[in-house]
């Protein structure tokens, strides 16, 4: 048989691929939801926690920073140490950790004990984020990995659009402790769901682990990471202290402000899904410009709730788009072979931005007042916008690179009824001569 015919026969598409593991992916999305809720809920219940723990509001903001710092520090070393272990037990261990440390937070009357629980919960968060995207990608054939990853990462949007605002609203009725108690119970239920629907995948073999230094030196990687940290620092400085800022403009209903922000992120994510594949650079530039414009509006308003909510909606729509665009740009720069390592690096940088923003916002609130917060965010976002505009070659090119999927080139074959065909889990496209 000619070589061309042999290659096409070996890698002929399989007529019926494996069933799409929707319920397993939704379990991973729920894990993402729990992580974001645990991370950001103190920002939504800041006044209540401040009173209960007898500390000023900026000290509650530091609890967000503590989670983010621990996630940032743990992401790369803990992920590296655990990469060789089976994936499902690691995931179950992380979920159990969330249950324990959220339970401690729910009952703690000590700020120091709460701070320690947040640090350990942050380690769980850094470990989770470094494995979620890779887990989802390994659960489906190559041609469906984008859809699978989108479903898992929708847990972020659900938490920000509905979870944090709902938690803030419920806290005004029942207090903040029952909300954290719920965040302790849900992960235990999720463990059963994971064992039922999420497949048991092996760890990574040592020869398949790309070097962190090699990935970090690839053209474009550092620029994308720099834009990520600038965006998150500016965003978190404003988001963490949305409640005291909202108090300047009308009734000061933080839950309403967070709800408008979260609902707008859904619209931003939908627009991104429709345009990012063909227009990543221009959509990212537009999103950063929208955030800067929204911050200018927030900095100029005086006791006008309508303007406040309109600017917050613009901010939310733009921010709903930006992180997805940055992750896509990072994977474009790294290529699919190094995507897992690049994602762990972005997890660290992302949480550095959250921690820096929460700390900087607290300092600004304490020394200058809430009115200065949007100006700081506008400055950092404008710097990020300038970097994206200048990085036309590697990081944010007008035309996205088309990486070959090495799994399609080294696909193992299986014989079904004596006919060699590609393994659907490894196949990307039929090979041609």
Oligomer class: single chain
The total count of helices amounts to 16
Mean pLDDT: 79
Number of strands: 2
- The CATH superfamily name of the largest domain is MFS general substrate transporter like domains
* CATH architecture type of the largest domain: Up-down Bundle
Summarize the biggest pleated sheet: 2 strands, antiparallel
Helical/strand content category: mainly alpha
In CATH terms, what is the fold-level topology of the largest domain? Answer: Growth Hormone, Chain: A
Characterization of this structure:
Strand 1 and strand 2 form a beta hairpin. 75% of the residues lie in helices and 2% in strands. The protein is globular. It has two domains: 20-203, Growth Hormone, Chain: A (Up-down Bundle); 211-400, MFS general substrate transporter like domains (Growth Hormone, Chain: A), CATH 1.20.1250. A two-stranded antiparallel ribbon has the order 1-2. It is built from 16 helices and two strands. The longest helix is centred in the middle third of the chain and has 47 residues, at 254-300. The chain is an all-alpha fold.
